[in-house]
Amino acid sequence: MDRETPLSPARATAIRDSFARQGLMGTLEARIETLAPGRVVLSMPIAPRVGQQHGFAHAGASFALGDSAAGYSALSVMPEGSEVLTVEMKINLVAPAAGARLVAVGEVVKPGRRLVIVRATVMAEDRDGLRRDVALLQGTMIPA
Fold it and tell me: Rounded to whole angstroms, how far apart are CA atoms 81 and 74?
């Protein structure tokens, strides 16, 4: 897996099309920031609609964004024509998600023949662009 080599235009289009079909990502106003083999960066605004009672982004928003970033990083190394499903995902919430937006970096840890081990780091970014980790995820993906 060479992260310096860009995805083929067809593969990037397939991933963007798959992402566009996700209703939850649309509801969260999530977007793809970066696509590379084995690495995908997603972001979304932290808005009241995804908040919890203390004014932070809800852990469910952090999980959803991290899971999708990790999933699409796995899809980027799967065979053409594949889709992806999460088999399992663990999350550690390490700080309150306070800021202007969430940024999730999904990465392939180990591509396998059938299962792909992934991780994601979710960061809260403030209005000045400073980021701090708020969640760490690790999981397993499978082609669908």
Answer: 13
Q: Which residue has the higher pLDDT, 2 or 48?
A: 48
For residues 61 and 98, the answer to whether their CB atoms sit within 8 Å is no
| Whether 128 contacts 74, CB under 8 Å | no
Taking the C-alpha atoms of residue 48 and residue 1, their distance in angstroms, rounded to an integer, is 39
Beta strands in the chain (DSSP E): 31-36, 39-45, 84-93, 101-111, 116-125, 131-143
Give the three-state DSSP class for 128.
coil
pLDDT in tens, 72-84: 999 999 998 999 9
**Tokens 């939850």 — which residue?**
24
pTM of the model: 0.95
**90-97 mean pLDDT:** 98
Cα dihedral 7, 17, 66, 54, rounded to 10, equals 140
Q: Is the pLDDT of residue 37 over 90?
A: yes
CA distance 21 to 26: 8
Can you give the pLDDT at residue 3?
Answer: 59
Contact 133, 94 (CB under 8 A): yes
- Helix orientation angle between 9-20 and 59-75, rounded to the nearest 10 degrees: 150
